[in-house]
Amino acid sequence: MWVSEIMLQQTRVETVIPYFEAWLRRFPTIGKLAEAEEQEVLRLWQGLGYYSRARNLHRAAREVMRRYDGEIPGDPTTLETLPGIGPYTSGAVASIAFQVPVPAVDGNARRVLSRLTDDPDPGWPTLRRWASALIDPEAPGDFNQALMELGSKICSPRRPKCGECPLSDFCAARRAGTQSERPAPRRRRSVPRLVEAVAVLLCEARPSRSGSDDVDSTTPTRRVLLRRRPSTGLLGGMWEFPGGPVAAGEDPLEVARRVGRSLVSQSDGSRLERHSDCAAVDLGPVQRLRVVDHAFTHRRLQYVPFLFRLSAQGPAPEGDSELMWMDPYEAAGVPIPVAQLKVLTQVFGPTGPP
Fold first, then answer.
1. 200: which of 24, 206, 249, 307 fits an S-S bond (Cβ 3.0–4.6 Å)?
2. Do the beta carbons of residue 276 and residue 203 sit within 8 Å?
3. Is the per-residue pLDDT at 188 higher than 80?
4. How far apart are CA 290 and CA 247, in angstroms?
């Protein structure tokens, strides 16, 4: 219940199902999830979006193991102390999994209650109070699921099926003829549109001869440079191409060059030489790749990627954990945001195992 409720936040059921099944195959118990590395957790969540949900599930699993000996608490107040669990999720888990008579009011339930009372904009405390008064103490999980399903299937945002509704005789909005106006639409905030230039640094290095018949020294190894984002904030812990914001009137190519040069310049000790057999005194030929647009919750971002080909020299020493050269197979094994994957696919094609 916990995993499904977290995955279903702002995500459609048909999208969630394959992720839910894969997640439970890999993490059939809270202990398995708690033991996992964050990179694996994020990789399994890749494509589902809102990655803080995955990080919170991971953190909460570790807290459940530490504080509750691996047993999820059934008390809704205690549930809300765990990362990523608010009043709705705690109510859903407590009522459905533990049969605790507490409300679970989502957007669908809010619509039903707003229409039943003909209230254009009831606040969440009011909604929870109404739902608490209505809930069936003998079957709270069934009640909460029925209320949400009623809002999803019958009391829909547009063209509600009032003739099929089992609560139509009690609906104040239907009597007033205001059901299509309840709840009142919320004012949408303007979403900023941002542009980011992306430096795709590609190294095609000849493998070092090792004396093994299995190594084809004539075939270059193709790697791109990826960096890991900070563990907190938007897309925390994910891997991406280096990039930078483009100000109004600024040339995206110059921003990408500036980002690339900061990585290959000899003034910082030939930074790339510490990460791979790839090094360059300049960025070499440039190729503009296809622009990728992506919508986040509070912003729209346009990625403008440029491909730079670097020279190769010497063996490949170890790199640090925040900046790393990866071939297609290695890139397929780390969590990469969907928009960045679209850039990666332009370089390598579909990458490695899912």
1. 307
2. yes
3. no
4. 20
Written as one letter, the residue type at 35 is: E
Q: Which two tokens stand for residue 317?
A: 């020493």
Measured CA to CA, the distance from residue 5 to residue 16 in angstroms comes to 10
Residues 116/157, Cβ–Cβ less than 8 Å: no
One of 5, 196, 240, 273 is an active-site residue; which one? 5
Q: What percent of the chain has pLDDT over 90?
A: 71
Residues 104-161 pLDDT 10s: 999 999 999 999 999 999 999 999 999 999 999 999 999 999 999 999 999 999 999 9
- What was the pLDDT predicted at 317? 35
Phi, psi of 31 (to 5 degrees): -60, -40
pTM of the model: 0.81
The reply to whether CATH 2.40.290.10 applies to domain 196-348 is no
Do the first three CATH levels of 2-181 and 196-348 match, i.e. the same topology?
no
Distance between start and end Cα atoms, the chain: 26
For the range 278-282, what are the long-range contacts, defined as Cβ-Cβ under 8 Å and sequence gap of 24 or more? 278/201, 278/203, 278/205, 278/223, 278/225, 278/310, 278/311, 278/312, 278/325, 279/310, 279/311, 279/312, 279/313, 279/314, 280/310, 280/311
Instruction: Name residue, tokens 């299995």.
Output: 214
- Average pLDDT over the chain, rounded to an integer: 87
- The residue length of the chain stands at 354
108-117, 162-171, 257-266, 318-327: which range is least confident on average?
318-327
Share in percent of the chain as helix, strand, coil (round to 5): 45, 15, 45
**Beta strands 193-205 and 300-310, pairing class:** parallel
Q: Where are the domains of the chain?
A: 2-181, 196-348
2-181: CATH, from 2.60.40.10, 1.10.340.30, 3.30.980.10, 1.10.3720.10: 1.10.340.30
Picking from 287, 303, 283, 307, the residue whose alpha carbon sits closest to that of residue 295 is 303
Q: Are 136 and 142 in contact (CB under 8 A)?
A: yes
Lowest mean pLDDT among 214-218, 238-242, 336-340: 214-218
Eight-class DSSP state of 309: E
Supply the pLDDT for residue 351: 52
